[in-house]
């Protein structure tokens, strides 16, 4: 299944950036990258195999010898097997690395007040990113003679739980339980041949940008004093404030903070038609 875009609820447009949260997101993204690349390679090989199978079948219908094609497809099968093994290993390694990192993300957090002057600042939507889509499909067949409705629903619930694990333990558990109850109920009341589960992750090209980006000086100083109480500024000391205003960027205070002035967006979902 495609990895969901890592995020932290504290990283909100116009808010003060929590460097620890940003570093955590970067670590999760870096850990998931090898597994995502391996999955893309595997999907490309599988897609190639299906396309070549159709070509071979067409040649057979035309009465053309396909011995050479069969030999090449046999080699391709070995490559698919190797790619699948590589993907499984990297996915397991990535999940082991990401699990403790994801546990550090807080659903609710407190931050210093943003120094942005909201009355003068505007939010504009600009196509600064790119649209993308990564989709994975799994079909679960149900053999009415062998598999019970509860076991069938449990299998789908496990897949949904894995697909939504990035949302946190509670949300993932709720979605998994809901999926299991829904499928179990449908299987008991109706005759089902199977369920198609789609997991999709997307990025969107339109980014939200603060333009014009206007700061409130009083709020900015208040935010500074909240973040750095041992290095607070006294706005009533005119000479000291003038000295700081005239100092170069690489001189004076070593402390600094950043504000999120723009952000791109992504989305993901899991569906069971």
> Averaged pLDDT, please?
81
Strand elements, count:
4
Residue share in helix:
40-55%
Low-pLDDT residue intervals, each spanning 5 or more residues: none
What is the H/E order? HHEEHHEHHE
Q: Quaternary arrangement of the chains shown? A: single chain
> What composes the largest sheet?
4 strands, antiparallel
Shape from CA axes?
elongated
- Structural class given helices, strands, pairing? alpha+beta
So how many helices? 6
Write up this protein.
It is built from six helices and four strands. 49% of the residues lie in helices and 15% in strands. Helix 1 (19-61) packs antiparallel against helix 2 (67-102) and helix 3 (149-163) packs antiparallel against helix 4 (169-189). The chain is α+β, with helices and mostly antiparallel strands and 273 residues long. Strands 1, 2, 3 and 4 form a four-stranded antiparallel sheet that branches. Among the domains are: 19-108; 143-192, no CATH class. The model has no long low-confidence stretch (mean pLDDT 81).
In short:
The chain is an alpha+beta fold. Helix content is 49%, strand content 15%. The chain has helices at residues 19-61, 67-102, 149-163, 169-189, 217-227, 238-246, and strands at 123-127, 132-141, 194-210, 262-271.
